Structure formats: C-alpha cells, structure tokens
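I am still getting used to backbone structure tokens and would like to learn alongside you. Label the sequence line and the structure token line clearly, so we can match residues to local backbone shapes. Go ahead whenever you are ready, and we will take it from there:
>
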Amino acid sequence: MRSLRGLVRPRPRSGARATSAVLVLLLLSTGLLFLAPAASAAQEVRTEEARVPSGTGADAVELDTTLYLPAGSEPAPAVVLAHGFGGSKQSVAADAQDLAERGYVVLAYSARGFGSSTGEIGLNDPRYEIADLSTLIDLLAERDEVELDGDGDPRVGVTGGSYGGGVALLGAAYDERIDAIAPQITWSSLTAALFPSQVGAVDADTVAAVPQDGDAGVYKRLWAGLFFGIGSAPSGGLLDALGGGAGGTENGDGADARPALGESSLPDPASVEPDEVEQALICGRFRADVCAAYQAAASTGTLTPEIAAVLERGSPAGVLDRIEAPTLLIQGTQDSLFGLGQADANARGIAANGTPVKVVWFAGGHDSSTSDRVTADLREQVAGWFDFHLRGRGADPGTGFEYPAPTGLGATGLGRVQGGDQTVLADAYPGLVDAESAERRQIALSGPLQPVVTPAGGTPAALTTVPGLGALTAALGGTTLEIPGQFAAFESEPLETAVEVVGAPTVDVAVAAPGGSATLFAKLYDVGPGGTTTLPAGLVAPLALTGLSSDPTRPTTVQVTLPGIVHRFEAGHTMRLVVSSTDQAFALPAEAAVYSVALADGGTDLAVPQVDGATQTDSGTSRWWVLLAAVIGLGLLAWAVALLWGRHRRRQVSHVEPDGEDVPLRFEGVTKAYKDGFVAVRDLSFEVRRGQVLGLLGPNGAGKTTSLRMLMGLIRPTEGRISIFGHAAGPGAPVLSRLGSFVEGTGLQPHLSGRDNLRLYWAATGRPAEDAHMEEAIEVAGLGAALDRPVRRYSQGMRQRVAIAQAMLGLPDLLVLDEPTNGLDPPQIHAMREVLRSYAATGRTVIVSSHLLSEIEQTCSHVVVMAKGQKIAQGTVEEIVGTGGAVLVGLVDDADTDRAIAVLEGLPGVSAGRTDEGLVADLDGYSRAAALQALVAADIEVDEFTPRRRLEDAFLALVGEN
C-alpha cells in the first residue's frame, strides 16, 4: 500500500513492464510527509542497526530495525515509523532521518514478512504485528535517550501510511503507552474496504459516512489481487530449496523484500513434501489463514464468516473506542481502495470516546499523485501534531477539519491530480461529538424506469478506475466506458448556481430483480453544457442488494450512499446519477439477468453534503511561519534572521507609492543582466497611467519580452524597481493578482475544451467563481459551440482568442498581452482592437507588445520604443509619429492653397508645396501647434492637419533600418 511520500515519485511511462512497475511502486512506496533534512544536520544523527526478537514459540520472529538518535544529551520523545504494504524500514529511512533531525528518537523497522524481518504476514493481526509494535515500545523504554512517562512507558508516537496507518490505529487501541498517532490513507474495516456495499441508512451525521452490510458486499477483486500478488511470492529457505533463491522480488527501495528465514532454517530439498511446495508457491509470505481467506474470496467473490473474521481481526473498527491517543487522520480524495468513508468511520469511533481527533483530506491517495506543495503541507501537519502532543511545543493543531478546495476537475495523465493546492479550513469535522451535523443540499433528479442488463460472466464490463493508476477517465481523455444497455441514468436540471460537494451524497432508488438480488454500481457524473462528462475521482459505489421485489411495476426502494468526493459542479452543469450492472474492478455475477431501476416514487432528490469553511491559499506558508516563530526562541542567530526579515518587510511597505492607483505600472532604472555578461534590459524607466493602452515596440532582441517577464514576477531584475499600483512587483507579490497576462504562448491544455481551460485557470487562482466574469471572457473568445470542443482541434487563431479571454478573466486592472493578434484574421484583429480600447475606457490599463506596427498605431494611445535593451522613445502615438516629420494640410477652400504655402514658408525652417496627396509642409522640427496657429491667424480655414508619416516610418527612423 502506498503512503503519502510515494505520491510524488516518478512513474514509468509506457509498456506492460512499465505498468507493472507502476503498480508495484504504488504498493511499495511507504515514506511519510516531512521536510527534507539539511545536509549539516544529517551528520548529527546517529543510527544503530539491530535485530529484535518478538513473539514466542512457532510465532517468534526477528524484526530488522534501525534506531535514529538525535543530537543532544537530553531524553527526547520517540516516534515509531511503520511502512506500507510491500515496503521495509528502508522505505521510511529519509523520513526517520528528518524526524531525528527535529529532535525525536525514531525507530524504523520492517514488519514481519517484509524486508529482512522473518515471519509471515498476518495483515496487522493483533497477536502478531501489533504485538511486535509493543515489543518495540518495550525496547524504546529501555533506552536512556528516550523520555519516559513512567517506568517502562516511553513518550512515543506512531505514524505510517496505509498498512502502516493500520499499525498506528491498532497499536493505540492495544497499547495505552502510545501518546499520539498520525495514521494516513488507511482503513477502518478491511471488510468494508474489500467487500463494500453502500446500501442502507447511515446512522451518522458526518459528511462521508458510508453504510456497510457486514454479511455481504461486492468483492474488490483487482485491488485484492494486487495485494496478494505482492505478498504471495515464495520466499526464504523454501524458495532457495526449490531452486528459486537467485530471483525474488524487491521492494521500492531496491532491498530484498523476501523475509530472511536464516540459514539454519533452510530445509533439505529432498525433505520438502509436495503439498508444502504447493502451499509455499500459492501463499508465499502470508499466514495460512490469510492465504485461505484470499483463495476463497478470489474463487467465489463471496464474503463468508471465515473471510470476515480474518479481515476484521486486523481492522481498527472494532477497537476504536479503546484509542485515547490524540489522532490526526489524513485521507486522500483520490482513493478507490480506502475512500473517505474509512477515515469518517475512524473519526466517529475515536471521537465518541472523547479522544481529540483532527481530520485532514488532501487531493491525492492510492490512485493519484499530488502536488509538491500539498505534500509539504501534509508533512508539516504530521510534524506539528507530534510537536504539540509529544513535546508540548508549537501551536495547538486543534480538532478541526481541512479539505482541498473543490474544483470541477479530476486527475490527469496517469492519475496526477490537478489543483489541490488550496485548502478549506472548518472549525470541526461535521457530525462528530459536540459538532454540528453535516448540511445537505437537495438536488432534484428525474428519469423513467429503465431496464439494466447484466451480461453472462460479467463481460463486457464498464471501465472507470484502474487500481493505483487513478481515474481511467483521465487516461482516456475524460471519457469513461459505460456499456449501452447496462446502465440507467437520471439527471438534474442545469444548475442555476455552482454546487460544491464535500462528502458522500445519498439518494433513494427503486430496484426490481427476477431473483430478488442484484449487484449494481452507482456513480455521480458531472455533465457539462456541451455533454462532456467527468466522473469525480473515478469513484463508484458498489451495491449488494438482496430482498428485492421481482415485479418491475413494484420495485423495492433502497437508500444508496454514493462515493465520498470533493468536487465542484459549475453553474450550467447537470448532475447525472448512473446505476450500472458492471464494473471491471469488481467481482460480478456469472448469470445473466435484467434488472429494473428507477428513482424512488418516480422522482427523488439527491442529498449532497456541503461544508462551510475559510479557503486558505497558502497554508504551507502559514505553518512555516509558526515553525519559524518557534525556531526564533531557540537562539540568537534565528532572532537575527527574523530581525533582518522584519526590516526588509518594513522597507518594502515604506516603498508603496502614494500615486500607485493612478500609475498602474512604473519601471525605475530597471536592468536585467545575466551571469555570462549579457545585458537584456538596461536602465529602463517609464510609467503607464490609468486608462492608457501602451504599445511596447522594438525589434527582436530589444528586451521587450524580458521586460514583460520581470513585470509578471517570472524573473527578477538585477537593478531597479518595478511597481504595480504602487507595490513592488516580484515573484509571488500579492499585487500580481490584479494583473492578467498572455505572454509567450497560450499554455492551454490540449485535451480540455476551451471552456474547461478557462475554468481550470480560474480555479487555480483560488478566487470565487462569481468573480471570474466568465461570460464576458467567453464573449471575447467568440468561439460559439467550439468552446466546448478539445483545444487540440482548434486553429492557432482560436487558441489565441481563448488565451486572451483567459488573461481577461476577473477583469484585471492591468492587462498585459504579448502579440495578441497572432493568428487572427483581419475582422478578428479589428474586433480585438475595439475590445482593448473599450477595456481601457473603463479605467483599466492595457499593455500590448506587437510587431504589427499598424495595429499598435490604431489601437494604442501611448508607445514605448526599445532597442538593444534600452528605451529610445516614449510618448503618445501622435508624438512619436509627428516628431521631426511632415504634415498634411487640408483646407476648406482650395483657393487658399497658395496663400497657405506662403504663410508656412514664412516660418523658420519650414517648406511647403503641392503634392498628389495635397498640401504638405515639412516642419523640420518646427512646432505643429505653432504652424497651425499661424494659418488660423492668417484667416485660412483648416480642416485637416495630421502627421504625414506612419508609425512604421517613425519606428524605422528611431531604431534604424537594421
């Protein structure tokens, strides 16, 4: 099973072997989430390797351990690191090192049956794996380096991901010496996880509670097969005796995953009985009862009391009321193995005993990787939990609830989560002790009674999620495979406002089956206005139905709980409830049948849970400041750093310019030089006023793009200052939120539609959807029905228009466009010109960089001309065009032409004469205003007095032909 650190590891990209490697990696990745250690601190941590005996008699094993000892002489709290399924102590080595550098004594170990530890896998059996944990805690109690709460009672926390998370929960239930735990992406009931059935009433007021019939369920055959495949490889002495010792499997860190049985235990090949050989080949490292349970489940797909007994033995569900250690529950929203309902059940069971519980959901899980920022934030969550509950240091993490800000997108590629970097904070997990119940919004669904066919043998089957590889919808470009005739669909009306679903929706359906029982799968699709569908997180709800009516005219009403999700259904979208008869990830009935499926009472409401909270866009940064505040108190050096930082911030605040709102952009002596000596921009100074459309002109290499990149905070200037609305511009500057830009390519996602690209971009800003002004931006794009087609089908001009609309989302106060008319035809260029002029007329400011000088002349009010990294001219278009040039003089009465020539030539340095265009005067630097005044003073009526040359002429005169 994969823990959180494994979510960001690289994956192979192609081929059957690559796919197998991905699956193994997902099961073997077992690190936790802590910050990377500093190189200097790494030298201060000492390690001790030891083989620790545990158990007695036939169940005695040796556990391979590494003890990490921090610098310093004072006793410190301890943390036990438990790895994921298929991993070993090497899988968590980096995390152990990090915790030790934080001042903890850390014990990492390989569970029995894994790595170099001996024994067989019992699936966290309290008699074996959990008893081993107590043995390790006994060992910690004997160490002088470990802080004690009492004789034989060390101050200790336990954390782990997936399989290791189960160890943390069960350990806290069976060993009261454990003081705090942080289980991650783990289970509450293995029966509910591997034989789910989300049918029936939920006796809970929480957001993600999922019902489970302990006597029946739909077998999750693909996930179960992956687990058994990882753990059933023949191992140890018996494998060597059979001639297979040179092979073996490896864990994710390259270490031999076969348990070392010891040379003295190697049997003589001649003494091995045939049935023993067969048993070893079939069961590998699993205990016999676990192996038998799997064989029975895989053969029949049926949950028996014997199978349930094995699964529940290693499930925290039955002992949650024993847990008194403060518990941080971390669960992923992209997880078809251990869904949000598993963490919900753990939270309810532990909190009911009065134990402090904090619940954190994150965008990721067993199916999908997550962003580096989310990973770093979760690392701090775990470290902060132990700091407070083991050391009494730092801010109280509380018992609140955190979840990723809902978006309308799921995973991409091979299950990579989009977004997820923004977190919503709620005061409490809804429905727990002393917390308000979850709120649910009612969404009306409609649709007729529909027949649903289940095929013989369960094939062909619908495709939704590939275990460990995320939603197959992503891999297939956003489309799941529903088999015609095998599903019923019911839809809502288009939503008038966006609906954010946080948790597991519920709905009542009516089902009839000829034999009185049925296996079905419920799922909730997000359907866009153009018909595009998204299955949030690729999750489905299996339904094992019994006691059904056989009469289609009188179907049985059943309550269905859909998968727990975090998803935003945008306004204009519809919710589609699909109830299908097949899913390739589950065991299916062998017999063909036809079911009848309808909404209860001919129409019913879908109850979707919602959670109010405050969106925190930079949660990781806020926690870093908490950590920094603690470090400040540790020494003079940290104090000095904080002081310097404070002065820097005050200096920045003092530089806010009082006229900033009137001057949206100001460059002051800006230079950008690179290490090789090349100077891209030199001493550039100019300012742009509110309501102006500024054209940035210059030949290739003039420094235009470099200037724009500095303006947007993508690179830093070497010297000088750039201010936006009076605030210093730079990477991450808050004032950049007032800027919209389109520079260096469209950056659109080709597999998404234009509309979804716009929504994705806005969702990434973390700002409310109503602030996007989406319709205005869509009107700018002007794509009509093509807006809902994939971008990969767009022409260059269409992509350009979507990118410009994207830059205008939120109606930014400062709009920066680089070559906006590339790929546009003349009518579109004309329309774009009008859009930009109208936009600036509202009091906003536009900056356009373009090589189409005629468009700059017709669009812009002001121009900055650059060459070789320097500004060589600035002013209005009229000023730039008119400098040192000729003017065309139009007279009301042509009879005045000779007199006008005489007046003009009477001015210093001015010459005039007739041309094919009319009367032209070469002013040779003489003021145009003074020349016009002279004509008016001579009673000559003038109706035209305009510069004769174009902007292109002025540009070439300024920068030179070359």
